[in-house]
Amino acid sequence: MNRRSGILEFAVLGLLRESPMHGYELRKRLNTSLGVFRAFSYGTLYPCLKTLVVNGWLTEESGSASEDVVAAPLAGRRAKIVYRLTAEGKERFEELLSQTGPDAYEDEHFAARFAFFGQTSRDVRMRVLEGRRSRLEERLEKMRASLARTRERLDDYTLELQRHGMESVEREVRWLNELIESERAGRDLRGSAADGSTRNSTSGETGGLPRHRDSTRPDPSDDTTT
């Protein structure tokens, strides 16, 4: 399975863990909740769903009459099928959720992993965040070295584009530093101390999102490579 298919598999299993969905609803959630999948089509989604069914991770069920009336005009006959996560599918998602290898740090996979941080244990979140930060710091060092070598040969607009790319990476590194600090301090989504927080994570450990002083938090799905 290639990297792109692996990300889609992970996201589909994660969304269906929340509730069963028909194909149109699932594609809509992928587009709206996980920005990395904005360009995905039914031609990409349905082969993935069929594979997950064959693997025993999903089951196909007939949708209710009310669902068919709404979904059929938009997605055709396929929308009548509702996909439900099996016990084996839940185990598969838990397995994928616990993985912290290099793929978890890449732009697209990190965005999908981050979207399910509420279901991820704190130790895994920390490894993914620290891995992502290390990857971006390496990227930033290479960008700075490249800019230093080529600065004199670049026109003003190309130079500005290079600077913009570096600023995007620097901004995400600062954001990751805040997240990692919050995770280490045990703060929850509202930035409260662990001993006074209201825990609501399905993983049994609260998330670590810090308070943000402005609205410039980077989109983890942004491709900051120049």
From TrEMBL:
Residues 126-167 form a coiled coil. Keywords: Coiled coil. Residues 186-226 are annotated as: Disordered. Residues 211-220 have a biased composition (Basic and acidic residues). Residues 12-95 form the Transcription regulator PadR N-terminal domain. Residues 195-204 have a biased composition (Polar residues). It comes from the Bacteria. This is PadR family transcriptional regulator. It comes from Streptomyces colonosanans. The lineage of its organism: Bacteria, Bacillati, Actinomycetota, Actinomycetes, Kitasatosporales.
